[in-house]
Structure prediction request, 318 residues.
Amino acid sequence: MRCGVCSLIFEVDWEWLRRWKEVQEACPTCGTTSDSVLCARPYIFPDDPALDDGKLRAMSWFHTSTEKDWPSSDFDPTGDLTEEFQTRAKRMLRRSGFQSMVSQQKSRALHLGTYEASVYNAYRRISDEGDEGKDFYVYRVELNPESEVRQSWVIDPGNVTGQVQVDKVCPEPIGITRYVNFHEDPGSLSLAVRPQAVKAVQQVAASSLDIDEDLLDSIIDRLREASHRPLLPREWPEEMGIEEDRSPVSAEARKTVKELVASFPVSLSDYFNRGAARCLDQDRLETWARWTISILNLVNGHSEVLEQLRSQPRRLVY
Ligand SMILES: [Zn+2]
Prediction:
């Protein structure tokens, strides 16, 4: 972090960041808190190896996606949208507005970051972008040695979803722009790149990682056992018309996930608690339990994921 008032640069952990957001922490020198306009923000240490162009190109960068052939050259941003949604969007935006939305999506910069930042992004999408229950692919990215790197770094150019037009952040002939990530792995360097800056990728699906079968059985047993319990008491009077989930299986699933992510950084655990609870299908408990463990493996089994990624065949992109 770097304080905007006294310029102090200091290192913090996830727990500190949580308290900071709740205005329970302050700059250790001048006492400025997060509700001030000039408050401390994530910052890059001047000795970060990724600030050196040569080292940056030689490093591994990461990305997570639900697409199994990312970054596909014929990327269709409407691919994930249902027919019904597209018809509604076309009606609301008129056809030309819809087409310009599609072309804007197509000219988005690609985002690469540390392994931690890429996993954080998957968890955020599970919570906020309807990707709960989907398989995730982790990509290890090799940069194109010929791509031009923009000098130094810029502040996080995107909103929280990371959508940013490539020409804005990588003005021609720049192919790679470093930015300090404010949201994912805060204070780490991430990259906004043109597709041509990606030379090759290696990929691993979360669903392909080894599953702890004992853990799987214990989760399924807990949920099955809960299905014999009575419905949870009603919290809202019926006349308020609020749809409640009174299922004891849902409650047990929420409790189970909460226990499994108890040691995770708070933003990751919040994201996962929210997304995992939403995608529970009581007729397919094993599917849900397998998915849950596979996504938790991205954190708990990170060294195994990195090792597997290194041994995967390279797919040339540009
Ligand atoms: Zn300060």
